[in-house]
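Hey L., structure's done. Input below.
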Amino acid sequence: MNSLFDAPVAALGGKPASLSDHKGKVLLFVNVASKCGFTPQYTGLETLYKRFKDRGFEVLGFPANDFANQEPGTDQEIATFCSTEYPVSFPLFSKITVTGPEKHPLYARLTAEEPQRFANNDDLHTHLSEYAAEHGFPPPNALPEVLWNFEKFLVDRNGNVVGRFNSDVAPDDPTLVAAIESALA
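Output:
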């Protein structure tokens, strides 16, 4: 894979799609899930998308069921959820794996290009460690792997990863918004 735009993807529903359709735009890749404590971020992501889309910005949502079985649905169930519970107009893609040995080539590229993530503090990792222990799940991933649902990768117009943000960095977080503004400039 020469660039992240070469990664094989499918639109929600399985129809082949191409990331090259998004070349020249500032992109925010987000691994999403319907049954996560961060699922309300769909609303903030939609607001962010609408705020900046006319300037060449897109949010690209990739459902993943890697963390505590929080995205168990089919593409159709995900599409229904994202049209009724959290209506979004930004592109959603077919479910992929974002961590581990079956990691999708797109996420292999994203994590390799930006192995560190911005976090407001270490509380999320501590909370996830406790949650995993209480529920018999594996402990949270170490870097460079994706930690949890709704982690965000910011990609500039040239396809370079210019930022990575922890799940607890909300879509309206000033640090994320400033990074988007900078990439759009």
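Residues 4-184 form a domain with the Glutaredoxin fold (CATH 3.40.30.10). DSSP finds five helices and six strands in the chain.

-- N.
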